Amino acid sequence: MARAVSPQRKAMTTIVVYLIAFTLFFPILWTILVSFNSEAQAIDPPRVLDGSWTLENYTLVQERSDYMRYLWNSVVIAVGSTLLGIVIAIPAAWAMAFVPGKRTKDVLLWMLSTKMLPAVGVLFPIRLVLIELDLLDTKVALVFILTLINLPIIVWMLYTYFKEIPGEILEAARMDGATLRSEIVHVLTPMAVPGIASTILLNIILAWNESFWTLTLTTIDAAPLTAFIASYSSPEGLFYAKLSAASTMAIAPILVMGWFSQKQLVRGLTFGAVK
Amino acid sequence: MATQHSRSAARFMMAPSVVLLLIWMLVPLGLTLWFSFMDYRPQRGTFDCCVGFENYARFVTSSSFQDAVITTLIMVGGILAITVIGGIFLALLLDQPFWGQGVARILVIAPFFVMPTVSALVWKNLIMNPDNGLLAYLWRFFGADPVVWLTDYALFSIVVIVSWMWLPFATLILLTSIQSLDSERLEAAEMDGAGAVARFWYMILPHLARAITIVILIETIFLLAIFAEIFVTTGGAFGTQNLTYLIYQRVIESQNIGLGSAGGIIAVILANIVAIFLMRIVGKNLDA
Predict the structure, then answer these.
(1) Which chain B residues touch A201 with a CB distance below 8 Å?
(2) What average pLDDT does this structure show over B16-26?
(3) Could you tell me if A97 and A162 are in contact, meaning their C-beta atoms sit under 8 angstroms apart?
(4) Do residues A267 and A202 touch, judged by C-beta distance below 8 A?
(5) How many helices (H) and strands (E) does chain A have?
(6) What is the distance in angstroms between the Cα of A72 and the nearest Cα belonging to chain B?
(7) pLDDT digits (tens, 9 = 90+) for B126-177
(8) Residue A179: is it exposed, middle or buried by C-beta count within 10 angstroms (0-12/13-18/19+)?
(9) Spatial contact of B110 and A32, defined as CB atoms under 8 Å apart
(10) Where in chain B are the domains?
(11) Is domain B56-287 annotated with CATH 1.10.3720.10?
(12) pLDDT band for position A218 (cuts 50, 70, 90)
């Protein structure tokens, strides 16, 4: 890829790229900066940069709104739904990758099609079922729903990773008398771990940010960070700095995870069509 | 190769995923379909079967449906135009040699990981607020009257907010695609005297065609369902009520389940039209 270009051109490109990159990143940077200012400074842009800073917003957000509970809900829902999805999806993806039948492709595409169902079309029935089961506004309900929402992506991602494991290795293991179980445990799993890890990472990100079901199916008990932040849409008094602090805490872990999973993101969100 | 034994094992292993997704798809959708033919308004205690296609007729002929369709088209079209054209440009730029590639990529991709409620509220308050926002400050600095973005230009503002999130997505996927282009062929074309425009038009763009199509289709599916950004900024006012939000309001706020369900089925049909095209492309890729 190292094309020969003049240093001047490279310098020019660098400047242009960083101007754009900085502009795109600016709203996030600004949010972080505002979160370390007092409310009075937050509504006066020049004073945000006056050098004084405070951590009080972070403590205030926690004291006034029990931030930790929302955070915990987010963690339980995102991690829970991802792990449950992985456990359900691994056998399916394994079977489709290594024992493909005539209908494997149809099944894969059909799974993908369920992902395209507009959520709002089934919002009322889902609410109704949850009310009947007494599960509205519970973490259990959201874990299950987000598992189902992301299951097609999890199966697809795992499938594309498993597909890359050479089948000959499995055949060799079978020749050596490995049982199906030991084949999975000793041969396949070690080779599949990186793919599984990336799948987990991407799906935690997707589940963490999911904001249709988390907004429409929770009120207080199971509300995760998406819903907590949404409560700032009709606030009282000055709130910019507190909103910024809450936002910074809500996006920081996912930003870090996201940066680590750029490559997997492309594969996961295009269902393996772009790698 | 696969023995009968492993076949049945495979079926057994696929069963949980398939059964769960089947239930997930059929039960709620079946209920929505059923409700869509009923006069079902819980607050008034009506639960009458069956009114035929009355709900569909009422939903489709209402002016709010027509407005919502137009709003949805502008919203999806505007965001697609910004993210795809911007994404191609950014991907080409990021593919050039420059210093600090890793950091630049991290900065560009970051907005995609911001949860929708955060990005919408940060834009609404810190940036677009007509009294205390950054843009208002900038406008005043140049002696102009601040713009009341989310009231006077509400639809445009939402297009900007959502584009900010999806531009990184388009860029990342198109960049991945560009980098898989054989750079030796490009260099050969350059040696043969093909200019930058010709190389872009005849070599890079055709290579990107498939990735662009995929970006458009995937974004369309997500953009048809924009919800949180509207929920926390305008609440559907000022001409920002898209189809998803209209159905949400019918079902949850006005509690007209029959009417909302008919709308839901229409949304499902619309989304499926897009989905069919996406599936074809992805399906072809499976054969390759």
Answers:
(1) none
(2) 89
(3) yes
(4) no
(5) 15, 0
(6) 16
(7) 889 888 888 988 888 898 888 888 888 899 999 999 999 999 999 999 998 8
(8) exposed
(9) no
(10) 56-287
(11) yes
(12) confident
Element (H, E) at B40: strand B38-41
A27 interface with B at CB cutoff 8 Å = yes
For domain A62-269, give the CATH superfamily. MetI-like (1.10.3720.10)
**Which amino acid makes up residue A123?**
L
- For residue A5, the distance in angstroms to the closest alpha carbon of chain B comes to 8
In tens, the pLDDT along B92-138 reads 999 888 998 889 988 999 999 999 999 999 998 888 988 888 898 88
Nearest by CB to A24, which of B1, B168, B244?
Answer: B168
The 3-class SS string of B136-175 reads HHHHHHCCCCCCCHHHHCHHHHHHHHHHHHHHHHHHHHHH
Which residue has 């709203």 as its token pair?
A27
Interface confidence: ipTM more than 0.95: no
Q: Touching check for A92 and chain B: CB below 8 Å?
A: yes
- The C-alpha atoms of residue A183 and residue A192 are separated, in whole angstroms, by 12
Q: Quote the radius of gyration of chain B (alpha carbons, Å).
A: 24
- Domain range summary for chain A, segments of one domain joined by +: 7-56, 62-269
Tokens linked to B204: 């890079």
Angle B228-B234-B237 from CA coordinates, rounded to 5°: 120
Inform me whether the C-beta atom of residue B114 falls under 8 Å from chain A C-beta atoms.
yes
Q: Which pairs with CB-CB distance under 8 Å and at least 24 residues apart come from A12-15?
A: A13/B93, A13/B96, A13/B97, A13/B98, A14/B98, A14/B99, A14/B100
Q: Residue ranges of the alpha helices (H) in A36-66?
A: 39-42, 45-48, 56-65
